[in-house]
Records
---
Amino acid sequence: MTAVVRIASAARRRRGPTGPVRGTLGALALLFALVVLLVPIAGSFVSTTHELGPFPKGEVADSSSAPPPRLTVAASPTSGTAPLQVEFWANVTGGTGTPQIRWSFGDGGAGSGSPIVHPYSQPGWYNATANATLNASGWSQTGVVTIHVTRSGAGGPPELSLSPVPSAGNSPLPVNLTISASGGTPPYSGSVCFGDGSPCVSLPSGWNGAPIVLNHTYIADGTFAIVASAQDAQGTSTFSTTALSVQNPSTLIAYGIESPGSGKAPLTVSFEAQASGGTVPYTAVWDFGDGTTATGEVGVVLTHTYTNGGTFIPALTIHDHAGRLSAPYTLSPIKVQSAPPPKSNASNWLTGGWLGQNSTTIGVLGLILVLIVFVLLVERRRREEITRQARELVEEMENARELP
């Protein structure tokens, strides 16, 4: 009996702290589960916070409420018989600084400042132009006032004035013809013939001679005489003529450059169009040879990306302002090598996916896993030792029973 008690006591001493170790293993397992669940959530939160970026800074509104500069021009008198003394004013409101005023009186005369007086010695219609500038801000504005000077005394034939703009150019040439009348007894009546075989245009009914603008486009090349005829209310007739020259423009030619001429897909190539002849401005129309087209400007670099492999022949065509079309210009072939096959999804996930972006988190999880494995190995060795001791106790008990 004494031997049995001794053996049982030894067995209790050899059992060790089995319960606390099991509690520790349970806590570690729970910790591991929480880490696995919370790390993706924390990573998502950090990623979202990063994408939001810094809070926008508040914008400070410009406290300046000064009105923009504005030019007003006036003259007195605006009509009268020659010679006519006219006083001009130019007033600038708003802005800062002292304005600089320069005048062009429409009869070849010029001046500066405000007010200013200018004499008109010949009858006619004149557009006096004031140009105001503020050097501090670079602001500039132009104002116009019209002056009508008539012939002094009674009688005298009416006079016509013709001014085509432009007076020469390449066909087709659009022209703005300004016509005015003075002298005689208004109102006036009459017509304008442009000299290219087109129908003549009648002047407005009841026209008082104030400048009017007639628009006409010359298609053919050559020199043309514009003839205007008119008569006043007394039946006195007059006419005026001016010449206009229209030339045949040089041949419209397209030329283009490209860079680079070869490479691996996706390959981005820069194109630049050049042109000569014709009428500016130009429009460049590109055909990149891969089924896509684009429109650009001459002298401006345009880029295109070839996404597939192959040999592509780009072409350029120039359109000018008059609607002419150049012959297509073919550029050197562009050789594009096919892109390598994409990596597998698994490889992309490992190198650039969640694992690649969370290497620190993976390291921490790996360390926890090593600690857990270590604890499990220690527990296994302890259990094996307990089992060995238990077998020894059983053998001692059996030996004790055999004692007398």
Note: Residues 359-402 form the longest helix (44 residues).
---
Amino acid sequence: MAAVGGDWPRKIMLVSALGTFVVGNAITALANDLNTVLASRALAGLGAAMFAPTALGVASSLVTPGRRGRALSIVTAGLAGSTALGAPLGTFIGGFTDWRYTLWFVAVLGGVSMLGVGLLLKSLPETPRVSIRQRFAPVRDVRVALTLMTTLFTYGGFLMVYTYVAIVLDRVTGGDERVLAGFLFLWGLAATAGNVLAGPLVDKYESRRIINCALSIAVVNFCLLPWASAHSVTAVISLAVWAVCGWGMMVPQQHRLVKTAPHVAPLLLALNNTAFYIGLGCSGAVGGVVILLLDRHFLSLGGAASLVIALFIAEAAYWSIARKTRVDTPSEVFPRRIEPDA
């Protein structure tokens, strides 16, 4: 959708995406059969998928390059914040009323956001017209491919543990879902903090330094998690480190992609989201295999292995970006020179 809708005015794209999201949630709230629920969830997902990369692209275009990291972190913080507050709030509403009211609440929030964007966001300059072929050119570029692979292995590792967090933390939760919800709430708050902190850091330091530090610390943290998860205090500390490093990685990855090819930033950010969700999808299956081979409390070692792979790929991406200072053909939309500190 990012490629097909690339010629749409950005404001119309944002409003249309939010409108699609609202309609999808409203239909789900009114649905009386499974097929309608599934179709409406797909519609709401389409709206969300249209909105996220467009919002990130708009945010990065509204500021100077020196403040791009902050802009990206503010938008991405919404995702991290929803992780911290969305599930508990939705459970609270559904527990006191009916699950349909949760969907109506989400639809109302989407409607308010749609009105806010429509009324408050000024019209943005039209982006240069770029053909569909040119929009998909980044997929063939090794710099982009390596950066996307970094995202895939990074979040495949991080989310491998998150998928099975209930059994990883069973020694401190005692199987109590309310205690687990409390741990996840703290995890979400730390994730939001890590995301917000990453913005100014990306603007001040090169992305490579932040990516390498975050992945290195996360590997050590995951290697210690089998023992840290046995005690409440150390489990909280480990969860906080995990969340800060995990969500703090998102902004420098986005920043690296935008600097590599700013003319197709929405498409690259959409591809980055795709890599994230592919990593999420694979994490459950790979994690299940790891649990068959190891004790469930050592699942984080499998996640650490994925993060080590991501670290090597991230380094390869950096050196590829540093070497390739010119585009292959004049028809590409990539800038002729890229900044070597990506």
Note: Confidence is low (pLDDT under 50) at residues 325-340.
